[in-house]
Amino acid sequence: MIDNELTRKVIGCAIEVHRRLGPGLLEHPYQECLYYELQKQGFHVRKEVPLPLVYDDVKLECGYRLDLVVNNKLIIELKSVDHLNDLHLAQVLTYLKLANQELGLLINFNELRLVDGVKRVINSQINKQ
What we know:
The chain is of the alpha+beta class. Helices cover 36% and strands 32% of the residues. It has a five-stranded mixed sheet with strand order 1-2-3-4-5, with helices on both faces. Strand 1 and strand 2 (58-70) form a beta hairpin. The radius of gyration is 14 Å and the shape is globular. The two termini are 19 Å apart.
């Protein structure tokens, strides 16, 4: 599945979760429902994936966790906040770099229209081999 199709389908699943739950909940219920919805659609999904930090060639377990990883290529960071800001975007970019992945979605479920809270994030510094 190409990246555009994958992100389109994942966003569709997120819209379905938002349509059924609405805004105003904490992040965790959205994570659980999106995890379920993505699995129901046949995606390979992992949640709360540990993400170590490598510093001076030493792997440090700092407690970073990826909310969802779809098909081992799309990192999803979920929020339920008033507004997304630059720090949220920086968080996703950092996760992409640490995980050596190219594609991420930042999704804020605390929006009246979910599409207003979705950002596709590309790690342009990925080392393609």
